[in-house]
Amino acid sequence: MSAAPPPAGPPPEIRYLFIRRPVLAGVISIVITLLGGFAIRLLPLSRYPQITPPAVQVAAAYPGATAQDVADAVAAPIEEQLSGLQGLLYYSSANASDGTMGLAISFDVTRSQDLAAVDVQNAVQVAVPQLPDAVRQNGVVILKANTDILAVVALSSSDPRYDASYLTNYLKLFVEDELKRVPGIGNALTFGGLQFSMLLQLDPARMAKLGVTVGDVATAVREQNATNPAGRIGREPAPPGTELTIPVTTLGRLQTPDQFNDIVVRAKADGSLLRVRDIGRAVLGAQSYDFAGRLNGKPTAFMLLYLRPGANAIAVRNAVQRRLDELSRGFPPGISAVIPFDTTPFVTASIKEVVFTLLEAMALVSLVVFVFLQSWRATLIPMLAVPVSVIGTFLGLLVIGFSINVLTLFALVLAIGIVVDDAIVVIENVERIMATEDVPARIAADRAIRQVAGALIAIVLSLVAVFVPVAFTGGVTGEMFKQFAITIVIAVVLSGLVALTLTPALCALLLKEAVEAHTGGFFGAFNRWFARVTGGYVGAVDRVLGRPRAWLGAVAVLVILAGVLWRRVPTAFIPSEDKGYFAMALQLPDAASLQRTQAVIERVEGFLRQEPAIRNIVALAGFDLLSRASQPNSATIFVNVRPWEERGPGQSIDAITGRINGRLFGMRDAMGFAFNLPEIPGLGATSGVEAQLQNRGGLPVQDFAREVQAFVQAANQLPAVLGVNANFRANVPQLYVDVDRAAAKARGVKLGDVFGTLQALMSTLYVNDFNLYGRTYRVQIEAQAPYRQTPEDLGQLYVRGSNDAMMPISALTRTQFKSGPTVLTRFNGFTSALITGVPRPGHSSGEMMNQLDGLIRSRFAAEGLGISYSGQSYQERASSGAAGLVFALGLVIVFLVLAAQYESWSLPFAVLFGVPFGVLGAFLGIWLRGQPSDIYFQVGLITVVGLAAKNAILIVEFATELRSQGVPIRQAAVQAARQRLRPILMTSFAFILGVSPLVVAGGAGAASRHSIGTTVFSGMLIATTVGIFFIPLFFTLIRRLAERGRAETPSAVEGRP
Prior knowledge:
The chain is α+β, with helices and mostly antiparallel strands. The chain has 33 helices and 30 strands. It folds into four domains: 396 residues, Up-down Bundle (Multidrug efflux transporter AcrB transmembrane fold); 93 residues, Multidrug efflux transporter AcrB pore domain (Alpha-Beta Plaits, 2-Layer Sandwich), CATH 3.30.70; 148 residues, 2-Layer Sandwich (Multidrug efflux transporter AcrB TolC docking domain, DN and DC subdomains), CATH 3.30.2090; 193 residues, Multidrug efflux transporter AcrB pore domain (Alpha-Beta Plaits, 2-Layer Sandwich). Helices cover 52% and strands 19% of the residues. The two termini are 25 Å apart. The relative contact order is 0.12.
């Protein structure tokens, strides 16, 4: 009993409708193309879609506190409330010795950032009562983190009158809000702490002589720098005849230094007054001087611009430049604004490269089709059909809310080779029927579409079945898969629609009577060669069918080899690209001042300018990018290089950073290294491995620091590790002040006065606010600079004891130097050290992480150390099992679709058994090229699965049809292999050559193109040159088993009693 034939496709009246009415088919295709072209103008343009996990930041300040104090009193109470938040991935805090705390909380990519911020807000409110009073007074700020940096705006001046403080405030007052209003800007943030502040710089010696304390000054400021409403004269209810209502005003908040100098601190009965000017001076200064910015060696104010989700990065960047040009016309003479650091050139260049690859792919596909079809008329048909599917895909992207990015464009590059297949299958069959049956093109088109419609539908459904499950995976990897997979699905569905409507209509319209095969010239030689290839292929297939056991053994060997490669190929998350910019981290010896840091930056800028490829140098003294904390002995430098086309050999980012690191390693008074930034903004600080070494055993800070250094030394000896660094420093000199609490109480001194005086005069004390230029700024108390330089200066700080007697703090304290951290970092509630590093060439980040895990287990777990991963490394670990799951799910769905298509549970195996050849080729290609299994390899592998199944479908479909006509199984398999060889080779080599530009790509984004290009190129090459010899064997064996089972079933039933 033979199986029912597969579906023949659309009903005859629909199938013939478009052949009879080609204009209708053309109109439908033109409308699709026009709408797709219109969608291109509306779609946002970016390097990547919105795949960065949403993050929320919490900032607080505890002036005068040490890093340990901030960690214990501020970070820990807040972190305790975070566990259990919906979608929480991890959180980390940086607690600095300047009293600041920055807490970054990362959520799953599917979590709404708005809802996550609300959750964090609620959690922080629970912790606020546990925070110190000074922290509550300064406020706890909760922000939705923007991670997609668009550009850095710099304001500099050639006039020495305009210092960094003036430039920072000018930028914040007159530029920041204007740029925030540019459509597409998510946020604009002026960098540093140089905002205006009214500084009451007190003289502790004068205060001691006059019997004044910090508390007296703060009380006077709060009382006299305040808004005091006084009401209205004549307000209702008023006596009859009241004609006027006049507001009553008083002096409210003060504005000028003179007004603050006149604040009365104390008044005596004799009428004498003690004012602020008598014990110090009020000056309009900056809130903090712990940061300094430089652009190409000049003092500069910087502002970070962030892109709004869904905005077109290129258009927004251009709009910002236009607005800056307009604002610059009103700047004071000598002040200019530039954009020294810009991420959009990489976006522009990488997308241009992919678009160019897209055009190259179309040209190469056209060449392959022309060589096989040997007719410009026949070649024109797929070249008209392909743009409809490709351009129409943009309409689908607009409808579902996607953007134009490298993932969707990569999908379209691969889609060219896929969508042309459907048209080729139709054209090749039409020409074969015209040649063998001697019928006109219109009749041949009808017969051809009737024969191949079922195969076309099966191909479309199987490809959709491969890619649709990908869209349901989670995390960052799932979002990237989704962009790629849905784009392919849209293109494939449109391709199937075009193949069933436009392509047969064009065949009937353009193809003429069958011509004799070329016998001379290039085409004659090609035809003779192809005839020999066909004969050799058919003979080889016949021999394979003659010895099934031996060849099944060979297949088993190949499958085992694919499994071995699957396990041996190292893993990674995403390839590191030459983005046209990089960063540097500098760290001076412990306790080095900001002035020393700036001096080191000047030297580094000197040898950076020796690199001809470097364009701009943005230096931030006092900021540590890796820990996201302010440290006077740290600096971060961002470097922009020239465009890719202007750089010569040896001027890639890797080459430049290699030379710079060589110079940095030779510095004696500072340590530093240059590194590539993450490929996806917001996923960590570097593009390498980012680990968090956690103190889970509660070791003292100094002991933990020693373990961290031991771990770093051991990690640098691992085979997969090129270099590892740790940012944890616990030996920074600190002056410990031990307050004799009993003595203080005995002398009537309040402990709060002691600590408050230390905080105010050794750091700053935030009192209240004042208004200037329509903005609100802080009023702060601090000691004059000469009184906070040495430990002996503590002897000049006084507090009030019993009977109003002034007492030096030195009489109540003992001081000694100790060591401790300037920044204490915590990760998921444990003290931690950030470990950053890069794998050795020939090894991957996955290998490096596995070896770090092994090192912890073997040597450091007993000491209470644990390791976790953050940023890009966290996402790599989280996605480690996603590829296998997606691969397996795709195969299951393909099987079910084919089972429904063929109404058979066994026949789909004949198709799926062709997939391992493509998988083997994909792994073999990246293994030979030394590439890891990254996310681009994974999406390429899914593509190979679908295309390998497509090749098998073409043979199995026709073999099944022949078998249903009574042809013996072996003969049907051989005949189907002969008949479908030409379209298989034509479509496969069209795809292979179409993706070949990805394999040899250069310029921006080349690494990602190499990864996906090598995967699909090598996978399809093996699937085509090796797999097609075994598909007839699989069909024969499975069909025989199926028919034998059906033959035995009736007799078994009849044999029952």
